[in-house]
Amino acid sequence: MAKPKEKDKREKLDLKKIKKILVNIKKELDEEAVSEEKLVAEHEDNTFADANDLATHDTDITNEMNVKKIKDAQYEDVLEALERIETEDFGVCEECGADIGSKRLEVYPTTKLCINCQEELEKVQKAKSLIANATKVE
Q: Can you give the pLDDT at residue 122?
């Protein structure tokens, strides 16, 4: 009897459903990007009555740029997830090669890690943060 292929062992994913979720997220991010561009254009045309207005404007622009960076990263994650669906790499943990699980993917369709690897990553990040904060205090 032939041994089943690794792909055959994997949990059956509803890729159409997940792809639809990803496409909807991408569409929302596209729409938000257009409205943010209009907002930035409005800010560029302003003249400022005093230094406080200018400082507030600079803070607003900085905040908008930070939000844009986060949304750009989300957009890239969505594009990568859609690519993984096309190449049939979707649903496999990039760290250990295990099944990520359909429920996790439906909630967080851009994830690249299974729950165990994600927890390990978060432990490492927390430890690094604690060490960094401890060295700041000294």
A: 97
